[in-house]
Amino acid sequence: MPRTLFEKVWDAHVVKPESPDTPAVLYVDLHLVHEVTSPQAFSVLRARGLKVRRPERTLATMDHSTPTLPRRPDGSWPFADAQNEAQVRALEENARDFGVELHGLGDDAQGVVHVFGPERGATQPGMTVVCGDSHTATHGAFGALAFGIGTSEVGHVLATQCLLQRRPRTLAVRVDGKLSAGVTAKDLVLAIIARIGVGGGTGHVIEYQGPAIRALSMEGRMTLCNMSIEAGARAGMVAPDDATFQWLAGRPRTPKGAAWEAAVAAWRRLPSDAGARFDREVAIDGAVLAPMITFGTNPSQGIPVNGRVPDPAAESDAQARSTLEAALRYMGLRPGQAIAGQKIDAVFVGSCTNGRLEDLRAAASVLRDRKVKVRTLVVPGSHAVKRAAEAEGLDRIVKASGAEWREPGCSMCIAMNGDDIKAGQYCVSTSNRNFEGRQGKGGRTLLASPLTAAASAVAGAVADARPLMEGR
Amino acid sequence: MKPITIIESRIVVMPRENVDTDQIIPARFLKVTDKEGLGEALFCDWRYEGVDKPRPDFVLNRPEARGCQVLVAGDNFGCGSSREHAPWALVDYGFRAVISTRIADIFRNNALKNGLVPVVLEPAAHAKLLAAPGAKVRIDIGAQTVTLPDGSTAPFPLDGFARYCLMNGVDELGFLLAQEEAIAKFESKV
């Protein structure tokens, strides 16, 4: 029977099949660990006298609580507070005690966990990948089944390398056509979420298909899969192809020599078979999409950057009207107002969604020979990204524009490390969530692509990047 | 985990839809390395003015909310981040069940591991609860039903294994550890 990509990966990892009484026991190939969702899991292992079952399948870094300002002259790190530091120290201690490979603060591979994993070549097609972080969906860009788990489950995987899982349903999102100039993977995924809704993918694994997906770079596919969770889907996947293999070749953890050839041959059998059935299918025309930006307090509340804020009065459904009203009240936006031109206070370029080299290049292409009008943080997703960007001189372009060039980390996406905005401020952000207070209590987030973020930084207001890209 | 078979309580109603885990517990409270006392931070930015002054208009701050163990929320409760701090905070505060028309996948999984019962009702039954703040409900885990204020009962889905774990206080880690033989066999094949 023809099978989907998801079904092939799932079937290959079933230790024990599910029954009406018990979920499947699913084997985990790669467990990524960071400092925020792991300490309580390691505590459970200690309390029960358990070991990490497969340390070589476990890989840790730190990103949420880490400072993005450089080390002080005396060698100390400028943590925002003692709790941040305690979390970092706890992971150092846990990794040491349990024999887990950690690329922590000061390590030249450290970075945002979902930038770091693929970069190390740890994420590979056909794998099951989990992490105590909902944006684990990112790794689906390689044809892996990757999803976020809670801390109890982090403990389960540490101790048994397995999870108890019911098989999710499948949703195919097919994107035809060719994205226009200035329309990126971020715009595409915001358009997809606007279409299927913030809970529309609940219970499903998405497979993104079609010519517009095949045309995306690996960075673009990671951006796309990353935000699958913002539609409620735990995982998003893209079938691996030559672009995937080229991107992975030669990375620290990928197979080498004959083992590489064998791996690629196996990976070529992963794409969904012709005639494979999905539980649901959605089709989108990529050719008609414009750059997108959110105006509300969940990621499905997105509109074209040259569009207008919707009017709650036009909503016939009372619940939808009240949701929209609450969003506009929090955001301080007027029904029907053009979103372009809305004054902003800050811009953030970075995160596991848009903190990769391609994203920084896009932002720099707009910032070159221009000045930013608002506080702008550019935060590379990892040290590897930072080094590559600096080798191309992107840091000089960013700094010359008046923007800040920071050290790698989650930074202003989640505002746990002291990088935040203040109550009432507006921030155009390349991150993944515009929930109330996400970037700081009372802060207002507008999600967009690195191009739109950079153009908005230059304008001091929400702006379409396309006019600024002419001739560049 | 203590076994749970029946929950009887008055309800707190929060009709808002898409309540995300950043609202349930904002990220600045995730800097802890244990899980004690997170109930203090539950719905913090809706619940308090400034740092700790209760907002009188917020539903949990009303006198009638005291002692309620069942939260009735709008559609798609618990969306967003995978933070288990969200169910930890709800349980620490005193909630034992959340009722909605849809509950986000990761939140539901996390809730079940902490004895917080995720109850998904059909819209018609859910609407009866939205209209009856403070009313008493009875959640029967074994029968998978909620007795509504009008005396009728509404069914809710619950995975057989999840029901078994809730009713017997079984923790999944113990179950997984007992699969050692199958896991070792699987590993020997890869």
Annotation keywords:
heterodimer, A: 472 residues, alpha/beta, Aconitase, domain 3, 5-stranded parallel beta sheet, 16 helices, 31% helix, B: 190 residues, Aconitase, domain 4, 7-stranded mixed beta sheet, two-stranded antiparallel ribbon, 8 helices, globular
Can you describe this structure?
The complex is a heterodimer of chains A (472) and B (190). Chain A is α/β, with parallel strands linked by helices and 472 residues long. Chain A has helices at residues 5-11, 39-48, 82-98, 113-119, 151-160, 185-196, 211-214, 218-226, 242-248, 258-267, 318-331, 351-354, 357-367, 383-391, 394-400, 450-459; strands at residues 14-16, 24-27, 30-33, 58-61, 101-103, 128-131, 145-148, 162-165, 169-176, 204-209, 235-238, 280-285, 292-294, 302-304, 346-349, 375-378, 404-405, 426-429, 444-447. Chain A has two domains: 1-289, Aconitase, domain 3; 294-469, 2-Layer Sandwich (Aconitase, domain 3), CATH 3.30.499.10. In chain A, helix 13 (357-367) packs across helix 15 (394-400). With 190 residues, chain B is of the alpha/beta class. Chain B has one domain (6-189): Aconitase, domain 4. Chain B has eight helices and nine strands. The chains are: A alpha/beta (472), B alpha/beta (190). At the A-B interface, helix 2, helix 3, helix 5, strand 8 and helix 11 of A face helix 4, helix 6, helix 7 and helix 8 of B.
Question: What is the CA-atom radius of gyration of chain B, in angstroms?
Answer: 18 Å
CATH class identity of chain B: Alpha Beta
Which structural class should the secondary elements of chain A be placed in?
Answer: alpha/beta
CATH superfamily descriptor of the largest domain in chain A? Aconitase, domain 3
Q: Tell me the CATH topology of chain B.
A: Aconitase, domain 4
Written as H for each helix and E for each strand, in order along the chain, the element string of chain B is EHHEEEHEHEHEEEHHH
Per the CATH scheme, the topology name of the largest domain in chain A is Aconitase, domain 3
Mean pLDDT of chain A: 98
Measured distance between first and last alpha carbons of chain B: 35 Å
The residue-averaged pLDDT of chain B reads 96
